[in-house]
Amino acid sequence: MIAGAGQIIDAKTLETSRVFTANEALRKVAGVNVRDEEGFGLRPNIGMRGLNPTRSTKVTLLEDGIPLAYAPYGDNASYYHPNVDRIQRIEVLKGAGSLLFGPQTVSGVINYVTAAPPMAPGGYVQGTVGNRDYANGKVRLGGHGAVLEYSRKEGEGARDNNEHKVDDLNVKYVLELGTNHVLTLRANHQREDSKVTYSGLTQAEYDRFGARYNPFKNDRFETARTGLSVTQEWEFGPGNTLQTNVYYSKFDRDWWRQASNSQDAQCGAAFNAARLAGSVVDPDQCDSVQGRLRNYETWGVEPRLNVRHAMGELQAGVRIHGEEQQRRQINGKSPLARTGTLAESNLRETRAYSAFLSNRFNFGALDITPIVRHERIEAERTNRLSGANGASTVEAWMPGVGLTWNPSSSLTVFSSLHKGFAPQRVEDLVGNAGTVTEVPEEHSANFEAGLRGQPWTGSSFQVAYFRNDYRNLIAVGSIAGNSTPLSNGRALFSGLEVSGQSDLGRGMYGRMAWTWLPIAKQDEAFRSVATRAVIAGSAAGKRQPYAPKHTLTLAAGIEAGSLRTELEAQHVGQQFSDFANTVAASADGQTGRIGSYTVLNASVNYRFSGAYTAFVTVKNLADKEYIVDRTRGILTSMPRLVQAGLRYNF
Question: Distance between CA 326 and CA 383 in Å, rounded?
Answer without folding.
Answer: 10
